[in-house]
């Protein structure tokens, strides 16, 4: 049972003076600042950053919200685009692409679904709860990497969303990118309440669009060329890309369940999350693979798909419905906001964990900062989608694997899966948290085998030449094995 008193004093109320909220150090007079805060609160804007949510404040009982968050976050053109990598980047046929998509997603959706169950029990954002494994200072490393990862995902979203919006009318990809970014900023700026409402509805028109595209364009799928039998290397390397796409949601999973009532069954949250992840990702990635492998035999598709224009490919699939297809493409372009908004929302949490003194800065400020960085990067990389997508999704999994393995071993082995063994009063006290040396050392040492197991455009390791890319799997296994003895040594030395 979670001790209410342990976390009660950690709740941040912007209308009160909090021990970690030194508002008087800001430039504006305190009265004006508080007035602004109260106005934002009445408008539904969430100000809370990584401060724990006290038990008495975890009142949300509409637990299916997490299902819709994951459903909408993955019902978009980016999921479709990642599926096209099977035939385009790795030379796989449709059957092999879909089998890889199915089985790798079934496996690597487990960590994010499981970590979603932590929010109601601890009231902590995901990377903040990682302090109980990596320590107060050690967690800055995965936090920094997650900040980079969030920017990368947002850039990819902006590019494919901008492409789709540009196909609607006479606008450039750049204009489309800016429009997508501004709308995403608004949703993430407002916080979890508005985000949950938005994610509850945005998936509906997007699903209808892809159903229509499949109905009017699916007749061409039967004409898809037959590919050569897949090699183990092709399967595992594409699998690493799929794993990177899905498992990295684990880094922010509990960010969206911290307000849930702590009495909810963990299995209930797990299945809401797991199904919410699996259904849209598998369906749209398989559709993307089918469309990409069929495009060369359909002249109209191939013409619009030139240069990796995924938005143009979907637009071509919708041509049979005439001008209505342009209306549908608007929904396709807006679909990435369902992914962008939670990504930018969690950007602030990661940044506050990366640089703890920034805990005094309201959460929404980081949404503005992130957008200011993401827009120019998206514009600069808009014509390099496929190389950016395949490289980014593979690389991000290499560090997410060790992170997840260390956190899981700490929780399941050292803390016996018991959330009562987390001293929530110490969430922000370095001396009462683990040193983090065991987690960082185990993660770093795992790369002795990860690097030879990598298969990237810029590098192919000796192990990967035979097996394909097994870097993520190797990272998780080695980290888990090394963490146990190293953590025992750390506990013996520091006592925490």
UniProtKB/TrEMBL annotation:
It is a multi-pass membrane protein. Keywords: Membrane, Transmembrane, Transmembrane helix, Transport. The chain crosses the membrane at residues 67-93, 99-115, 136-159, 171-195, 202-222, 234-257, 269-293, 327-348, 360-380, 392-413, 433-451, 463-484. Gene3D superfamilies: Hydantoin permease (1.10.4160.10). It comes from the Eukaryota. Belongs to the purine-cytosine permease (2.A.39) family. This is NCS cytosine-purine permease. It comes from Lactarius akahatsu. The lineage of its organism: Eukaryota, Fungi, Dikarya, Basidiomycota, Agaricomycotina.
């Amino acid at each position: 049972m979670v001790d209410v008193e342990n976390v009660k004093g950690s709740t941040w109320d912007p209308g009160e003076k909090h021990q970690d909220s030194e508002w008087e150090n800001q430039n504006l007079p305190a009265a004006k600042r508080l007035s602004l805060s109260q106005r934002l609160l009445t408008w539904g804007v969430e100000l809370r950053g990584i401060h724990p949510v006290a038990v008495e404040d975890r009142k949300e009982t509409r637990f299916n919200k997490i299902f819709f968050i994951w459903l909408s976050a993955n019902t978009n053109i980016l999921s479709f685009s990642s599926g096209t990598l099977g035939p385009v980047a790795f030379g796989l046929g449709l059957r092999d692409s879909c089998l890889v998509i199915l089985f790798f997603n079934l496996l690597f959706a487990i960590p994010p679904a499981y970590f979603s169950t932590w929010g109601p029990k601890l009231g902590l954002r995901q990377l903040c709860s990682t302090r109980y494994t990596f320590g107060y200072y050690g967690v800055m490393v995965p936090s920094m990497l997650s900040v980079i990862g969030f920017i990368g995902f947002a850039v990819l979203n902006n590019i494919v969303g901008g492409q789709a919006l540009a196909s609607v009318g006479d606008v450039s990809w750049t204009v489309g990118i800016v429009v997508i970014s501004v709308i995403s900023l608004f949703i993430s700026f407002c916080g979890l309440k508005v985000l949950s409402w938005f994610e509850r509805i945005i998936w509906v028109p997007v699903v209808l669009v892809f159903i229509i595209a499949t109905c009017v364009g699916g007749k061409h799928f039967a004409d898809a060329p037959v590919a050569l039998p897949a090699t183990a290397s092709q399967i595992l390397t594409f699998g690493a890309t799929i794993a990177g796409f899905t498992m990295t949601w684990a880094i922010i999973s509990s960010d969206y369940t911290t307000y849930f009532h702590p009495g909810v069954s963990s299995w209930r949250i797990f299945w809401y999350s797991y199904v919410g992840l699996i259904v849209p990702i598998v369906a749209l990635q398989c559709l993307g693979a089918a469309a990409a492998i069929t495009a060369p035999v359909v002249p109209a598709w191939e013409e619009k798909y030139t240069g990796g224009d995924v938005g143009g490919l979907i637009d071509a699939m919708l041509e049979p419905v005439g001008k209505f297809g342009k209306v549908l493409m608007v929904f396709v372009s807006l679909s990435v906001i369902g992914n962008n908004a939670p990504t930018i929302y969690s950007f602030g949490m990661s940044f506050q964990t990366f640089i703890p003194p920034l805990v005094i800065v309201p959460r929404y400020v980081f949404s503005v900062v992130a957008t200011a960085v993401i827009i120019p990067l998206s514009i600069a990389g808009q014509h390099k989608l496929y190389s950016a997508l395949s490289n980014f999704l593979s690389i991000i999994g290499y560090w997410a694997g060790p992170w997840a393995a260390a956190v899981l071993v700490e929780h399941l082995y050292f803390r016996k899966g018991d959330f009562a063994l987390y001293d929530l009063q110490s969430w922000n006290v370095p001396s009462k948290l683990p040193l983090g040396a065991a987690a960082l050392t185990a993660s770093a040492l795992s790369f002795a085998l990860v690097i030879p197991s990598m298969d990237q455009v810029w590098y192919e390791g000796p192990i990967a030449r035979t097996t394909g890319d097994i870097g993520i799997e190797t990272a998780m296994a080695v980290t888990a094995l090394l963490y146990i003895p190293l953590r025992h040594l750390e506990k013996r030395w520091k006592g925490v």
